[in-house]
């Protein structure tokens, strides 16, 4: 079973989950004081949803780039791998919901619950990503015969800590939800920069 | 006519139907007692929609995996096959609607109607899947010249009972809607496990 | 410029436009008398939206199958062809809106306006389809060197009357909106049957 | 890393962003005086949302055609290029939100804020498009070995002024929002015509 259709389905879910994020901005804008308040005022009031949009879009984008990197090392899929991927995509497609919660409640008493929901979703996403990767890579089960051992080791080393880092950021929300939300954003930004600046070099290795 | 575009279109519908399920969670959360009730309280109140999300996402994922398996044996499409596939995708894309009904009404008197609507949709999905498969496979009409007869027989044996099983679960809703909903979930879980644990072995046959 | 990406984009729009139709059913169900009325009652009240869902899903499905047939004869795209396709997809993606209007207003005084909106959209869709096809086929401009002249003539003969038929059905709405809506459904059904029963024969020609 | 999956993901985002535009028409129609006002009256009242739908759909369509043209000259992607593309798609997927603002507020005092939001989004889109293109083309970094130098120069010459033109149109909104909205529409139309009429010639060069 080759991986072509798997990638089409996964890319579809990534693209839709990312694009649906804009509906959260719509909703948030709509929940801001309506006319006669000015549109400019509503646009300012909805600012957390722009930040949330950027952070979640970039996060999904990074997951997509990483999935791309992983699939480059994979030769074929079996049904277990397909089911693991379905489970992984299930948590990715969940991301728009806690994104909206964070945007709408970061400024009220719901901030802790919202930040926890966001963090748990991303922790599960990172954990499922690891499950997909380890199922494929342990013992070279589904890897291409000509896979790059350095790249495989690099992927393992990069992704293994991600669920723990997200778990730590999630638990931070119990103490200070705003701090945890800033950490989610900073972590996404770190990956963007890391990918952009160091990505070129690493791909030559 | 090769099957490439058919798969792109089908994967698109699968991906969108699955990803739209998150909107149900949004709606359910919104229908829970709003602020000043706490966000945490709303998150707890919306729990049936998380279960419904998981069950329907996995169900659509399993249908996608099975469609994948079927298309692997198929060489080309004719227009009848395309129209049957459109009909099949029409019922798949309907799944988010009864999913929401079940999530929102499983705890009130609407449970029977909701569980029936869900069951009828999945019974029709299974029946349409069989129609697609039998049109393609009877007499080897659209099968690859090098199709695997054991796999073809295996597919027929696996899918033939599915509409009847779903019909039985649907009728259960008339007696006990909660039992039928638990059965829908258990059946999805069974397929996930069956695919994951036995999938590898069978693919070697 | 080959046609691969054109088909991916088009299939994406077809798949999303078709799948978004389910949101209309959601909305219609929500506008039916809410609890304490029973869910069963709401499900019955929303019946026009199921019919509208089926008719529009099949209509988009038929357009997709026909687009498939057309693209099989086309060798490459130029930028004019891409822009015409964008215009064509723009009217296809509009279909969910009048679909909802028809479902919600076929039983009240808004029926004429709704049926006109639906008919105008489908008339434009058929006209744009013809524009795409004639741009590609006149003088064999974008056709494959090995295109099938009988198939090309068959496509031209099949599609040329469609805008006029839709226009006639649209004008019927001025006299009797319900008659025009029945005609839209009958025309979709005709194409489904025509494709399914006669499709196989014609593909051999 | 080849560009196949990049294009699938990008085409998915383009297709979804364009198709989601129809939800704005739905919303606008719903915000028009409801029954007992006539459906015909609501359809007339929602006219700005049809214009906005057409302008934004064509704009996204043109961006897609241009992305197509760019990718034809590109041989492979690195991770920096993928991240830039994610950023570019992030602003494309944002377009439906300001589109709705313009449609709903062009006739009230919110026109300036709405036209500014629309213009800023398109200015950022054009700027990100340039970032993607210059990253790929400067020094021929990611270009195909057999890229067409005339086409590369033509792309650079065509796209470089776009952010500045959009910025100028955006600033026009401060003086006269309706003028700026007309300019956005005229600019989209210009590209449609330019692509359609001159596209054929240029592709031969």
Task: Outline the structure in words.
The structure is a homotetramer of 205-residue chains. Chain A is an all-alpha fold. Chain A is built from 9 helices and no strands. The longest helix of chain A is centred in the first third of the chain and has 28 residues, at 4-31. Chains in contact: A-B, A-D, B-C, C-D. The interface between B and C is large, with 37 and 41 residues.
Describe the structure concisely.
The structure is a homotetramer of 205-residue chains. Chain A has 205 residues and is an all-alpha fold.
Key traits:
homotetramer; 205 residues; mainly alpha; 9 helices; 80% helix; elongated; disordered C terminus
Secondary-structure map with pairings?
4 copies of one chain form a homotetramer.
Chain A lengths: L3 H28 L7 H7 L1 H25 L7 H14 L3 H10 L5 H27 L11 H11 L2 H14 L1 H28 L1
Helix pairs in contact in A: 1-3, 1-4, 1-5, 3-5, 3-9, 4-6, 5-6, 6-8, 6-9, 8-9
Rg calc of chain A: 18 Å
Distance between the termini of chain A: 29 Å
Question: Could you give the count of β-strands of chain A?
Answer: 0
Q: What is the 3D shape of chain A?
A: elongated
Proportion of residues in extended strands of chain A: under 5%
Order of helices and strands of chain A: HHHHHHHHH
* Regions with little confidence, pLDDT below 50 for 5+ residues of chain A: 201-205
Structural class of chain A: mainly alpha
Biggest interface: B-C, 37 and 41 residues
Number of helices of chain A: 9
Quaternary assembly: homotetramer
Share of helix of chain A, binned: over 70%
Largest sheet of chain A: none
Average of pLDDT of chain A: 89
């Amino acid at each position: 079973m080759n991986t072509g259709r798997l990638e089409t389905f996964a890319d579809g879910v990534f693209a839709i989950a990312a694009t649906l994020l804009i509906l959260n901005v719509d909703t948030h804008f709509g929940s801001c004081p309506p006319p006669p308040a000015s549109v400019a005022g509503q646009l300012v009031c909805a600012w957390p949803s722009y930040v949330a949009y950027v952070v979640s879009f970039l996060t999904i984008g990074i997951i997509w780039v990483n999935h791309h990197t992983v699939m480059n090392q994979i030769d074929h899929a079996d049904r277990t791998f397909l089911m693991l991927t379905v489970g992984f995509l299930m948590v990715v497609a969940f991301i728009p919901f806690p994104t909206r919660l964070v945007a709408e409640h970061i400024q009220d008493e719901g901030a802790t619950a919202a930040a926890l929901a966001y963090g748990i979703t991303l922790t599960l996403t990172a954990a499922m990503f690891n499950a997909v990767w380890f199922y494929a890579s342990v013992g070279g089960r589904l890897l291409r015969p000509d896979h790059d051992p350095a790249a495989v080791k690099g992927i393992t080393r990069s992704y293994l800590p991600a669920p723990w880092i997200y778990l730590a950021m999630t638990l931070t929300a119990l103490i200070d939800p705003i701090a945890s939300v800033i950490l989610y954003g900073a972590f996404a930004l770190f990956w963007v920069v890391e990918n952009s600046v160091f990505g070129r070099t690493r791909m030559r290795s």
